[in-house]
Amino acid sequence: MGRVDTPDLPTFGVEEEFLLVDPASGEPVARNARVAELAAQAGVELELELTSCQVETTSAVCSSSDDLRRDLSRLRRAAAGAATEAGARLLAVSLPPTVPVGFPVTDKPRYRDIAERFGMIAHEQGISGCHVHVAVADRDLAVQVSNRLRPWLPLLLALTANSAVYRSADSGHASWRSVLWARWPSSGPPPFFDSADDYDATVQMMLKTGAMLDDGMVYWDVRPSANYPTVEVRVADVPATVAETALYGTLVRALVMTVVDEHERGEPMPKPGAHELKAAYWKAARYGLEGELIDLVGGHAPRPAPVLLDALIEHLGPALTALGERDMVRSELARIVAAGNGAARQRRAWRRRGEVGDVVEEAAAATVEGL
Predict the structure, then answer these.
(1) Is a pLDDT exceeding 60 seen at residue 84?
(2) Residues forming a β-bridge with 19
(3) Do residues 242 and 130 touch, judged by C-beta distance below 8 A?
C-alpha cells in the first residue's frame, strides 16, 4: 500500500461501558442512577445503559493515543470512585462473571419500550462493549468505509475479547458477549451497502417491520454514526485495561485512514459473504488470541491470531507512521500477545481455584490498572 495522504489526521473518541457489582458478592447491582449522580457532582457525565447495573463513559475528541489514554484514565477513575461511594464496584468486563439474579431495565420510557418489544433478549442484556468513533465527514464515504472494515471486524473482536467467565463457569469462549449480542435482530456485521441511500432503505425496512424500535437500535458492529460525522466501530468487548482500549482505538483510527485511502484510489475490496463472516466471528469469539482465526483478507486460510495481528500492523504501516503511533502499537500488541487480553486474565484467575471471586478481583484490578 502507498503512503497515506492525510494533511488533516482524523480525530477519534471512545465510549466504554462498565458493569456495577456488589463489592462482596460480585453480583450485578442496580445502582447506575446513583453512580451517575455522584459522578456528575465530580464533573463527569455518565450515560445510563439499558440495564440499571451499567454505566457508560464518553471520552473527549482526541488527536493521539496519549490524549485518549489520559482521558480514559480520568473517566475510569471518576466512575470507579462514584461506584465505590454508591456502595458498588466498577468492572471493565463484558459480562458478569457471577450468576446474575437478573438485569433490571433502567427506568426510562425508551428502555421500557425496548424491554416490552424484545422480551428476554433485553432482560438478559447486561452486556458491556466499547465503541470507537473516527471522524469521516461525508456520509456516503462513511458507508464505503464501513463496507471495507467488515473483513477486519473478527480480528478486532479477538483482540479485545473479555467475557470468558460467565455465570460462575468458563463459557468455552473468549468473547461470550458477542455470542449473546448476536441475538438482537440488528446486531452483528452489517450487510454490504451500495450507498448511503441503500443503507437508509435497510434501516427503514427494519423500523417498519418492527425489528428495531428506532434508529438508535442500529446495533451493527460498524456503522455511520447517527449523531456525529463519524464511523462508529462497535465490535469490541470492553477491554480490561485503559492501555488495551487506547491500543484498540488507535488501530481502528488507522484502519479507517487506510480504507479511506484504498477507496479513494479505487482499490478492490474483499466482500466476505454472510456465512464467511459468521464463521470468522465464531472463531474469534471462541479462541480470542489463543487459537487460529480465519483470514478474510488473505484467502480464508486459518492462521494464528498473532500472525494476523502482525499482518494488520504491516497493512496499517503508512497510517500508523502518519499518526506517530507505530512503535506504541507494536509494543502494546507484543505485550498483550505475551500476557494475554481480558479473556486470558479471567481464565487464569478462574483456573487457580475455580472461584469466581478471584475473577472479579482480577477484573477490578485491571479496570483501574495504571490509573
Answers:
(1) yes
(2) 54, 91
(3) no
Note the pLDDT tens digit of each residue in 186-229. Answer: 999 999 999 999 999 999 999 999 999 999 999 999 999 988 99
Per-residue pLDDT tens for 114-164? 999 999 898 888 899 999 999 999 999 999 999 999 999 999 999 999 999
Q: How far apart are the first and last CA of the chain?
A: 38
Strand-pairing partners, residue 13, are 133
